Each structure stands twice: as C-alpha cells, then as structure tokens.
C-alpha cells in the first residue's frame, strides 16, 4: 500500500506517522480567504466543483499533508434533503429549525443526491488532480450532530432543545435519526463511488448526550453506518469522531467498529492507547488546536507527548478538533516537520 494514511487505518504502525488536520482547508490560509471572497457565498464554494477542488488542493500544495479532505460541509445533507441552509457572515449556519411535532415526511434522499451532484463531481476531479501518494477523505456529519442543527436551526453548545425534542417526542425523533442514517449512507456511498478512499463521520456534539441517549443516537447510528459501508465497500476505511464521548469512548470504539477513532484533545493519550490502540484499532489525534496557535515550546512538547504515547501501534496525527482561523502558517509547517522527523521508539 503506497498511501501511508491507508496503511495506518488498516492497522499498521507507520513511520513517520501520517498527518492531516481537520478543517485544513479554511480561513487560516490567505489563498482560501481570496477564493472565498471570489465565490461569494460559502455554499457556492461547496457547490461549484472547480472551486471546491481548488479549496481542497490549497493545503496539499502548501504543506504536502498525507491526506486531502474534500472541501464541503456536514450541512449540505439537510440542505439537500430540503431544509435550506444559509451561512451568514459572523453568525455561522442558519436553518429553519424543525419545531416540535414537525414531521420529516417532506424530506427526500433522492432529491438530496441530485442536489449534491456537484460535490461528487468535485471528488472525481480531485482523484485526477491529487498527487498519487495523497489519500482522499470524504465525510458526513453523524445523525445526532446533524439533527442538532436541524432542530435548533443554528449552531449551539448544549443542544437542550434537541434533547428536549428527543425526550418529549421519541418516535418523531427516532424517525429523524433513521432518515439521517439513510441520508448519511447515501451521501457517503456516492462520495465513495466518485472516488474517496476514506470517510470520516463527524459526531462533533456526541458529548452532550447522557449514557442511554448516547447509545441510541450516537453509537447505534454509527454502528449501522460503519457496518453497511464495510459490507458494501470492504476496501474503504472509516474514521469515527465522537467528540466529547468521554468514558463512553472504549465502548463506542469497540461496538461501532470503525477502522479508526478520532480523539478530541481532552482524551488522555495513555488511556486511549491501552483501551483502543492496543486492541489493534487505529487512533487519530489529538493535539489541542489552541497549542498550534500558541506555537513554540508548548507546541513541540505537546506534539512529542502524543507521538510518544501512540508510538507502539497504528496512529494518524491530527488535531483534537478543527484548526482555528487565527493559526499561524509557520506553526503548521513546524508541526508537520516535527511529526515527520520524529524517530520511532
Ligand atoms: O476539514 C476540511 O478542511 C474540510 C471542510 C469542512 C468544513 N466543515 C468547511 C467549513 C469540514 C470537514 C467541515 C465539518 C463541519 N461543519 C462540522 C464538523 C466538524 C467540527 O468542526 O465540529 C460542523 C459542526 C460543521 C458545521 C459548520 N460549518 C459550522 C458550525 C460553521 C460555522 C463556524 C465556522 O467555523 O465558520 C461552518 C462553516 C465552515 N465549514 C467553514 C469552512 C471552511 C467556514 C466558512 C467560511 O469560509 O465562511
């Protein structure tokens, strides 16, 4: 296997450790800010294949990461299903929130796939443009995380409204989660058929769920999505990112059976090495995005600790969450150099 990311995700210890960064295409890059200004709106950027290809390629050209992640967003799924999404400057995403009692009957997965054809066209173009050693990652939001935006109509931090909906109207909420499992599978399958080799499932808000709801709305949907992708596409590797899962992480890793688990920065590395990596499952992560902004000794110390903790098994170096817009370019280059120069134990 000549793509180091695929080797690590297949359970091999790779030296040097493969590296890419969540949100590696984005506002910390001056060339992204210029492209974004030219595109007009964020969704125009996502839905114009040439521009999405260009945004995906920018961090690869500048830094030579081991993987490219398709430039898109998790909210193209509700947008395609028929719940229009808008990105307002400074406000983040705005959707017309589902009110209690609303039904999901009007949403259509066929219409979503039709609407998202430009996204799949970008994947096809990227396979032609990427260097042969660079893996291409596709992605989707996990059902729970996408549901929080669909119910609340915007980004939030505690998702109390979505949880209330789930407790008061469990049948309607379960219907929404089922629809999102199917929509996620259809969207990831279309990306795979267009040429992505790896998919990441972002459950950015898994941490707001109590145990039973975590099992029902985060773990079980992930398990079903991973099992179906593995059945249909045995060569494709799946990374799951249950951000904030805390003590539920080992159960999640084992039961959802993704090829790799992406760890947020709060996860103790020694604990994750013992509970997840020692069982042969790849781990990804988990540098604090804020230490990459800070730079200097704290950055090198933190990166070395992570490399050391995960030196004995399959590991993909990444952040614990997306790169921050204020991150200096120089720190990114220094981090890559540090990871590539690290000697194995
Ligand atoms: O990783 C990459 O480089 C690929 C592209 C990517 C984007 N969003 C581009 C983007 C990926 C993988 C995402 C995932 C995403 N989107 C998540 C899950 C990961 C996470 O960070 O937790 C979530 C929750 C979203 C939803 C979303 N998109 C929000 C809340 C926002 C507004 C906040 C923000 O960061 O601006 C976005 C917008 C967005 N998605 C931008 C980018 C580059 C910034 C938009 C701009 O340029 O104006």
Describe the 3D structure:
The protein has 345 residues and is of the alpha/beta class. The chain has a single domain (4-341), classed as TIM Barrel (Alpha-Beta Barrel). The chain contains 16 helices and 9 strands. The strands form 2 sheets. It has a 7-stranded parallel beta sheet. Strand 7 (260-262), helix 13 and strand 8 (282-287) form a beta-alpha-beta unit. Helix 2 (30-39) packs antiparallel against helix 4 (49-63). It is globular and about 55 Å long. The structure holds coproporphyrinogen III. Coproporphyrinogen III (CP3) binds next to strand 3 and strand 4.
Write a brief caption for the model.
With 345 residues, this protein is α/β, with parallel strands linked by helices.
Count of discrete domains: 1
Uncertain stretches? none
Report how far the terminal alpha carbons are from each other. 23 Å
- CATH class term: Alpha Beta
CATH architecture name: Alpha-Beta Barrel
Percentage of residues in strands: 5-15%
Mean pLDDT: 95
Order of helices and strands: HHHHEHEEHHEHHHEHEHEHEHHEH
Percent helix, as a range, is 40-55%
What key phrases describe this protein's structure?
345 residues, 16 helices, single chain, 9 strands, alpha/beta, TIM Barrel, two-stranded antiparallel sheet, binds coproporphyrinogen III
Secondary structure elements and pairings:
Layout: H1 4-9, H2 30-39, H3 42-46, H4 49-63, E1 67-69, H5 76-81, E2 85-88, E3 92-95, H6 109-115, H7 117-129, E4 135-141, H8 143-152, H9 160-168, H10 170-194, E5 198-203, H11 211-232, E6 237-242, H12 249-256, E7 260-262, H13 269-275, E8 282-287, H14 289-294, H15 296-309, E9 315-319, H16 329-341
Parallel strand pairs: 1-4, 4-5, 5-6, 6-7, 7-8, 8-9
Antiparallel strand pairs: 2-3
Helix pairs in contact: 2-4, 4-7, 8-10, 9-10, 10-11, 15-16
Bound molecules: coproporphyrinogen III (CP3).
């Amino acid at each position: 296997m000549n793509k180091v990311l695929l080797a690590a995700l297949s359970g091999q210890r790779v030296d040097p450790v493969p590296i890419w960064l969540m949100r590696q295409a984005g506002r910390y890059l001056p060339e992204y800010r210029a492209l974004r200004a030219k595109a007009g709106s964020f969704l125009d950027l996502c839905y114009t294949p040439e521009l999405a290809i260009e945004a995906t390629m920018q961090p690869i050209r500048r830094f030579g990461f081991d993987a490219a992640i398709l430039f898109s967003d998790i909210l193209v799924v509700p947008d395609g299903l028929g719940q229009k999404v808008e990105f307002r400057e400074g406000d983040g995403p705005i959707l017309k929130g589902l009110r209690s009692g609303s039904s999901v009957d009007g949403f259509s997965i066929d219409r979503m796939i039709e609407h998202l054809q430009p996204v799949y066209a970008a994947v096809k173009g990227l396979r032609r443009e990427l260097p042969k050693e660079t893996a291409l990652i596709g992605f989707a939001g996990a059902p729970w995380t996408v549901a929080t935006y669909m119910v609340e109509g915007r980004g939030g931090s505690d998702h109390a409204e979505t949880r209330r909906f789930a407790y008061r109207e469990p049948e309607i909420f379960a219907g929404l989660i089922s629809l999102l499992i199917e929509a996620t599978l259809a969207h990831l399958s279309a990306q795979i058929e267009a040429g992505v080799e790896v998919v990441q499932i972002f459950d950015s808000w898994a941490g707001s769920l109590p145990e039973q709801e975590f099992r029902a709305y985060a773990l079980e949907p992930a398990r079903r999505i991973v099992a179906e992708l593995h059945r249909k596409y045995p060569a494709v590797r799946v990374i799951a990112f249950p951000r904030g899962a805390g003590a539920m992480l080992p159960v999640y890793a084992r039961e959802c059976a993704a090829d790799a688990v992406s760890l947020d920065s709060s996860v103790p590395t020694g604990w994750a090495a013992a509970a997840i990596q020692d069982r042969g499952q790849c781990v990804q992560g988990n540098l604090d995005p804020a230490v990459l902004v800070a730079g200097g000794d704290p950055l090198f110390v933190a990166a070395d600790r992570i490399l050391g903790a995960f030196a004995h098994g399959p590991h993909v170096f990444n952040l614990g969450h997306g790169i921050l817009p204020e991150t200096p370019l120089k720190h990114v280059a220094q981090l890559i150099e540090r990871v590539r120069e690290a000697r194995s134990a």
